[in-house]
Amino acid sequence: MTFGQSQTTIGSPAIMEPLHISSPVLFISPRSINLSLGQQTVYEGCKHMPTAFIWYLSLQAINMFLGLPANIMVLWLILRNKRDASTSDIFFLHLAVVDIIFCVTIPLEVTTLVFLTTSSTWYVLSFVYGIKDSSPIFLSCICLDRYAAVLHPIKFNELKDRQHRAGLVASVWIITLAYATAKCVGTIVDFETFVYSAMLLAVFAFMVFCNISILWALRQSGAGRDEMHPVKKRAFKMVIIILAIIVCHYLPLVALLPFKSYFSPDVHECYVRYFCFGLMDISSSIQPVLYLSKDRLTCHSGLCCKSKQQD
Predict the structure, then answer these.
(1) How confident is the model over 146-178, as pLDDT tens digits?
(2) 19 in a domain, yes or no?
(3) Domain range for 132
(4) Residue 32 placed within a domain
(5) Buried b vs exposed e over 233-256: b needs ≥16 C-beta within 10 Å?
(6) Which of 8, 136, 148, 149 could covalently link to 203 via disulfide, CB atoms 3.0 to 4.6 Å apart?
(7) pLDDT digit string (tens) for 247-303?
(8) Per-residue model confidence (pLDDT) at position 34
(9) Integer distance in angstroms from the first to the last C-alpha of the chain?
(10) 94 Cβ contact partners less than 8 Å away, ≥ 6 residues apart
(11) Is 22 among the domain residues?
(12) How many domains would you assign to the chain?
């Protein structure tokens, strides 16, 4: 990202020189397409404070070697067990597709961050980032599905076998592709600051509301009983998992985005961004692992895995 307003070159804290048009600096944040051509890689721009950059690349390596196969496994299990799938599995399936798309582009991202100074690959990466940004929306769909199942069970059972979930998924993909395209084009001023921040804050608030409402309802229904109903117990575990994902992976980003102006440009672009987006991106590994572990998979000879029937 080029900070024309600051008239300084961020890449070298010891020698601050004017930023001339004849020798612009390439400095690209991991979620921005606001750039200009230059001779510096992103790594060179942040080598004076590399801690968060190394943290980010380490988490991306985990996504590559753990998240990608785990998401493929989730995709295979859901497609293989269609008849036994829960009502939320359609959202988990598309969440896995989003994470697979993101994980397969990690080698291109690492190459661009460390070695390349060209801007062409960032259009591809920005489009993929836009798709990845839809993960909280699919999580909110899961929260909505569990909210309806626990707090409005009669209406939920009436709509259980209908196609409204497929329509909701299609709507999310339309929004996702439109958002990713706008992010890729990069012509909207402060697109990330306003559009993404507003979307993330709204989705975060909705998910927290749904999960707290579900937890309260389950706690009330289980009062005075030794054991919770198995269906409600599974719903309780899923809600706890989603709430943990929300707090751990998205709360830092939600909390720090509104305070961008309080950080110096180099601290924000080299440290805060990489730290927050690293936490958000590692959800591509955590989510499928938690999904695979929640059903107590039983494997026979390492060749066949069968999940027990869900609600």
Answers:
(1) 888 888 888 888 777 667 888 999 999 999 999
(2) no
(3) 48-294
(4) no
(5) ebbbebbebbbebbeebbebbbeb
(6) 136
(7) 888 888 878 877 878 888 888 888 888 998 899 999 999 999 988 886 544 343 343
(8) 45
(9) 48
(10) 138, 169, 172, 173
(11) no
(12) 1
